[in-house]
Write a structure and sequence with these properties.
By secondary structure, the protein is mainly α. The protein is about 50% helix and about 5% strand. The chain has 21 helices and 5 strands. A 5-stranded parallel β-sheet has the order 3-2-1-4-5, sandwiched between helices. It binds flavin-adenine dinucleotide. Flavin-adenine dinucleotide (FAD) binds next to helix 9, helix 11, helix 14 and helix 16.
Length: about 475
């Protein structure tokens, strides 16, 4: 049978891969698996070294998994359209299959490629795989995309109940003679012009399944069972940590949904709320993908365009302090240092630092959006943009602009023992709980006793929250 190309993008797995399974079926297993390092993305403003390293680790695992099945991953670097046309010609393949991606860049690229392949007489088929619900599968009664999460999520759950999820096995693949001769070697991070000291969790299909197995084990005290409450406590590992895997597709969202549904069948009532809350997060993921797809202007400006008139102060020194985790607000600093060290940040912390950047430092949310994309291992244009616009009060479902997080009380509420701060801000390690989120009120004697001089070893707050809160209300009030 004539071979087909499966073009891997953000679906770096063999298990439950819709387009790969279809390519194997339609070619009798004669699939040429291909991954292309897209120069446009590698040079883009959102490129993040930790995410690229995770990608390389995941590719390494994919290469090994394919090799076990007698197949070879063909790696290329360059313009995807040119590379695919070259591979099709050199291998006398009949077409290319891939799983759809929905960012404006991906949509434009894939539409052009589909057209070019058809013009050249090849097959080009794309599949729903990244999301549970396709972009037009859930609409309002008058056929419009949802702009508010709650009714969207209700329909999302109904859709899930009606259709269920099917998880596909690893397809049978046959070696395609000579495919390996077309491949470049797997580049290193440095080969791609990037470096990082961030230490993220490892990439690959196996680690993803291990995380899911542990998280959905009902016997584990900190798992999907306790998710509803534990997910907000900054110092606890109370969430799945699957975000980078879902970002690059080392696990399918259907596998995650199925594991949650299986847990639901075995769960006692208190655990059910945790499982349902977690499924709700997967609905948020779909929700933001469809927002970006239907409203691509959000990558340039506010979802609600009136907020494009906000006049941000954009103080470069304050931005540098925020990036470095040196604002003098311990929970903000711990969060930013977690990001800088681990390429990941707790969701509650993301909300706190995003609110702080926009509403305390009066800095454009797009500065924070870009910094996150460049440093998060799970950096995703849809979820990240959605999160930032939510925090800035400019997006769908936005936190109303007058609701401004107080970084001190957020710290006291979600890190009551200060363990999160102690982990990432060693200067404050010996400070007792009662001063942990307000170290600047310590007397000089206390500062000496607890081994930290405020303004010397650890910064005084770079702004006064009370003052900035008023200024933010004025700024937003003007538009
Ligand atoms: C300002 C800001 C920026 C964010 N940037 C990103 C980002 O770039 N990439 C990203 O994946 N998430 C982002 N989030 C959402 C969320 O913080 C992360 O998905 C979550 O912290 C990842 O950890 P986890 O895998 O343990 O999540 P869990 O709590 O275990 O959730 C399971 C999965 O659901 C999805 N999810 C959870 N919360 C959200 C959400 N609010 N929006 C969309 N999907 C969600 C993720 O895929 C996540 O892995 C952002 C949130 C905010 C407030």
């Amino acid at each position: 049978m004539t071979p087909l190309i499966h073009w891997f993008r953000r679906d770096l797995r063999l298990r439950d891969n819709t387009a790969l399974a279809a390519a194997a079926r339609d070619s009798g297993g004669a699939v040429i698996p291909v991954f292309i390092f897209d120069e446009t993305l590698l040079r883009g403003r959102f490129v993040g070294a930790a995410r690229v390293r995770f990608l390389l680790e995941s590719l390494e695992a994919l290469i090994a998994a394919l090799r076990e099945r007698g197949s070879t991953l063909v790696l290329c670097r360059g313009n995807p359209q040119q590379e695919l046309l070259r591979l099709l010609a050199e291998h006398h393949a009949s077409g290319v299959y891939w799983n759809r991606d929905y960012s404006p860049y991906a949509v434009a690229r894939d539409t052009a490629i589909k057209q070019a392949l058809h013009n050249a007489g090849y097959r080009a088929r794309s599949f729903k795989d990244l999301v549970v619900c396709e972009m037009d599968e859930i609409t309002t009664n008058d056929g419009q995309p949802y702009k508010v999460y709650t009714p969207y999520a209700r329909r999302w759950h109904q859709h899930l109940i009606a259709t269920g999820v099917q998880v596909a096995d690893v397809p049978d693949l046959r070696p395609v003679v000579g495919a390996e001769t077309l491949s470049i070697a797997l580049p290193t991070l440095v080969d791609l012009g990037l470096t990082t000291t961030q230490q993220a969790l490892p990439g690959g299909e196996q680690p993803a399944h291990e995380l899911l197995r542990t998280f959905t084990d009902l016997q584990q005290p900190l798992s999907i069972v306790s998710y509803k409450e534990a997910r907000n406590l900054l110092a606890l590992p109370g969430t799945s940590r699957l975000s980078a895997h879902l970002r690059l597709g080392t696990i399918s969202v259907r596998t995650c949904v199925q594991a949650a549904q299986n847990a639901l069948h075995r769960a006692t009532p208190p655990a059910v709320v945790g499982i349902e809350a977690w499924l709700g997060e997967l609905a948020w993921r779909d929700f933001y993908v469809q927002i970006l797809y239907h409203f691509p202007h959000v990558l340039r400006g506010a979802f609600k365009p009136q907020y494009d008139a906000l006049v941000w102060e954009n103080d470069a020194d304050l931005f540098a302090a925020w990036c470095a985790g040196r604002t003098g607000y311990p929970v903000v600093d711990a969060a930013m240092r977690q990001l800088n060290h681990e390429a990941w940040m707790h969701n509650r912390a993301r909300m706190i630092v995003a609110s702080f950047l926009t509403k305390d430092l009066l800095i454009d949310w797009r500065w924070g959006e870009r910094y996150f994309m460049q440093h998060l291992v799970d950096g995703d244009p849809a979820a990240n943009n959605g999160g930032w616009q939510w925090a800035a009060g400019t997006g769908t479902d936005a936190q109303p602009f007058f609701r401004i997080f107080n970084p001190t009380s957020q710290g006291q509420k979600f890190d009551p023992q200060g363990d999160y701060v102690r982990r990432y801000v060693p200067e404050l390690a010996a400070v007792p709980d009662k001063y942990m989120h307000t170290p600047w009120i310590m007397s000089e004697a206390d500062q000496r006793r607890y081994g930290v001089r405020i303004g010397h070893d650890y910064p005084v707050p770079v702004v006064d929250h009370k003052v900035q809160r008023k200024r933010a209300l004025e700024l937003y009030g003007r538009v």
